[in-house]
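Cross-check.
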Amino acid sequence: MTTDTTTPVTSRTKSTNTPSPATPGRRLKNRAPGKRGAGSYAVVAAVTVFVLAFLAPFAIILLNSFKTSADYRTNGSLSWPERWNWDIIGDVWERVDFTQKLVNSIQISLGVVLIAVVLALFNAYAIGIGRVRWRTAFLVFFLGVNVLPQEGLVYPVYYLFKEMGLYDGKLGYTILVGITYSAFGTYLLSSVFSSFPKELIEAASLDGAGRWTILWRIILPMSWPTLSVMCVFFFVWSWNEFLYPLVLLISNDNQTVPLGLSVMQGQYTSDPTSMSAAALLGVVPMVVFFLIFQRSLTRGVTAGAVK
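Predicted model, tokenized:
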């Protein structure tokens, strides 16, 4: 009797603890790549709404850039153009002298990138790799330069440029903005250089490499992702500068694109269609720039996350 009673209990226990053969199949079926849960659809819907909200102003600018003034007054800003007015782009281009403004912005932005990156590289190399004295004080100084608002510096800079003969000159303005941006670049690169493996630098020194060789052959190639991101950011920041060029660049031959587009807004009158066309002309170069350097920007942003 005891044997007959124990055996069914053992079999029931084994059958209870042992997963059925259909269980793994059901788990794999639930994890099939073709099916998505409610959370995935919610994320896709949220991202779609965000993208549409982000692109809506650009779509409105694009529509109004090819409308006539009468069409805008009659149908409003959200309507489809009754007739595409392609001449307005050419009129705004000639009115603003956009060719000269575009050349000035490209020259100044490239000069700012060159000055800022070179200064930041040398400063960060001395602070992060060379371990100069008062390292913390220097970093606090460079951080303080980034914190100071432009409104507090523009008038001292204005009088300084007047005394030095740099007022209304692209060279002086480029040097000023380049030095200002190099403070942020120094602070960023110093934190990157301080995390470099000391063994690698010591091994290069033992092999006879000097400071310049270590900088150009070891530090610089390993810092390309961060430097590429800095170049993109500095170019965009310099392109969008408005307060400094408004005060320091007053002649039409030296003005940048943002200053040239600002003349479309008068004190008492304004033409929304011309302003939209001017805004479109200002946005297109930045879009082209990002399309060209998007890979460098993506690699630089993700370089710190993937080792």
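The CA atoms of residues 34 and 119 lie 52 Å apart. The radius of gyration is 30 Å. Passed to J.P. for a second look.
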